[in-house]
Amino acid sequence: MKRRKMAVSDLDKPIAERAGKTDHKILATWAADCAERALPFFEEKFPGDTRPRDALAALREWVRTGVFRMADVRGTSLAAHAAAREAEGDDAARSAARAAGQAMATAHVPAHAIAAAIYAATAFRDAAAQKDAEDATAREREWQFHHLLELTGHIQS
User: Which tens digits make up the pLDDT trace of 56-77?
Assistant: First the structure.
């Protein structure tokens, strides 16, 4: 059976529902945290390429300051996606860079946070052995959901 392009889990719907009720900057923080967990898959293969990490730094700066410049948001997001395209042949690295690009795009459109988390989970899936891929996805999505609940004050860490 052919592998799905994106990782899926039983938590996709609950995550999307909670994300839809979450403050924009909290959602951006969550997206950055999700993408950052996957970033080592990219950085281990492409240690000199800082574009995905730069996108996350720019997003965190927006969360901290509230200063929004569309050219910066677009530029850093698209640069992370360009890094993903250049990570040809390494699915985990590509998905990790895409997670960073989507996370940065959350500054503009909050719904991009969901895509960032899914790309991050996909990176974990793709980095795992095929027999462990489903478990890797489930573990990552569980962490993501729990972390979103923590950030929104629905559970204590």
Answer: 999 999 999 999 888 988 999 9
**Tens of pLDDT, residues 24-39:** 999 999 999 999 999 9
Structural contact between residues 113 and 19, judged by C-beta atoms closer than 8 angstroms: yes
DSSP three-state, residue 129: coil
CA pair distance 135, 138, nearest whole angstrom: 5
- Token couple for 121: 């989970």
- pTM of the predicted structure, to 2 decimals: 0.94
Stretches where the chain sits below pLDDT 50 are 1-2
CB within 8 A of 36, min separation 6: which ones? 56
Residues 6 or more apart in contact with residue 97 via CB below 8 angstroms: 42, 51, 52, 80, 81, 83, 84, 87
Question: Dihedral sign, CA of 52, 54, 56, 59?
Answer: negative
